[in-house]
Structure formats: C-alpha cells, structure tokens
Design goal:
This protein is mainly α and 189 residues long. It is 58% helix and 7% strand. The strands form 2 sheets. Strands 3-4-5 form a 3-stranded antiparallel sheet, with no helix packed on it. A two-stranded antiparallel ribbon has the order 1-2. The longest helix has 24 residues.
Length: 189
C-alpha cells in the first residue's frame, strides 16, 4: 500500500484565490465558493448531529447525507460525477423518513419555535443553514447551470431536518413552543 502525504497548507490561497475543478482560479469570495462553502458548513453541522446520536440507523442515514452533501459541493465546484439517479434516490429516502416521523408527531397549524432539547436545537440550526445553502444555490442557478436535483435535495433535506428536530424533541419528552402570531404569547404543545 502506498500512502501519499498531502500538505494541509499550499500557500496557493494566500492572496485570496482558490482553485475549482479544472484548475480555474477564482476569488474566495466568488458566489460559487460561497455556495459550496455553505454546503460545507451544513455538512459540518450534520456531523455534529451525528456525534449527538446513538449509533443506529439514524447515524448511518446522516453519514449518507454527509456523503451526498460532499458530492453536491464538489459538483458545484465543477466535478462531473454527481449522478442524478442517486440524488433522486436519496430524496425519496428522505421523503419516506419524513412520512414515518410525521406519523408519530402532533399536527402543527402554527410555526414552532426552534429549540427544545440540545440535539433538537442543533438540528434546527442545521435546518436553517440548509435553507441558507438552498437560497444561495438558487441564486447561483440564476447565473450558471446547476443540476435542478441539487436544489430539490436541499429543499427536502431542510424539510427532513425540521421534522427530525420535532421528532427528537418528542422522543425526549420536550414540549414544543408554538408561535400563535403574537410576540407576547406562546403556547406549549
């Protein structure tokens, strides 16, 4: 087995530029870099979610989410290996998980304030970062061709994270705070 050592620092970005697939150099503040940077940030939060879970099917599922997010970020940077059918398959898996969890949760008719347990709160943060990544990807799609299933994937992932936060809180016996539309009034469910 041959092991290659890769320096973590190359000094190539010291002047504010980075390379994307194909070797093209762009500013680190380029909208494309921002977009896959948000995907990377989301992936890190998913890693934090995983660290808070017991080793089970949820852990394995979220590791798959991390792998898909890495593939999506790479695709945005110019990698041509993102397979539409695999993304669509992951979207379907998320929809099945959402449906299963929602069956155990009370129906909501108002907004739920993000929070609850520690893990539930972390999942809500990941959800809001997912929405930001989705918004940035939609913005980028106005300027360059983006595989449409990427936007669909991010939209479904944020739905999944919302329901998963509610599910985690429910499983932990944490009562949700429901917003009734009045800043001074809240109801617990």
């Amino acid at each position: 087995m041959i092991c290659r050592f890769m320096n973590i620092y190359t000094r190539a970005g010291d002047k504010g530029f980075t390379s994307i697939f194909g070797g093209k150099r762009v500013l680190k503040c380029h909208e494309l870099v921002d977009t896959y940077g948000f995907i990377d940030e989301l992936n890190s939060w998913v890693g934090l979610i995983i660290s808070q879970l017991n080793k089970n099917d949820e852990t394995r599922f979220f590791v798959e989410v991390q792998k898909q997010l890495l593939a999506i970020g790479s695709s945005l940077a110019g990698w041509k290996g993102l397979k539409k059918e695999l993304v669509e398959k992951q979207i379907k898996k998320m929809e099945i998980k959402i449906d299963l969890m929602e069956k155990t949760l009370p129906t909501i008719k108002n907004f739920v304030l993000p929070g609850g347990s520690r893990v539930g709160s972390i999942v809500h943060i990941a959800r809001s970062i997912c929405r930001r990544a989705e918004r940035q990807t939609v913005s980028l799609a106005q300027k360059q061709i983006i595989q449409p299933e990427i936007i669909k994937y991010l939209n479904r992932l944020s739905d999944l994270l919302f329901v998963f936060a509610r599910f985690i809180n429910s499983q932990g016996g944490v009562t949700e705070v429901v917003w009734s539309g009045d800043a001074s009034t809240e109801k617990k469910r």
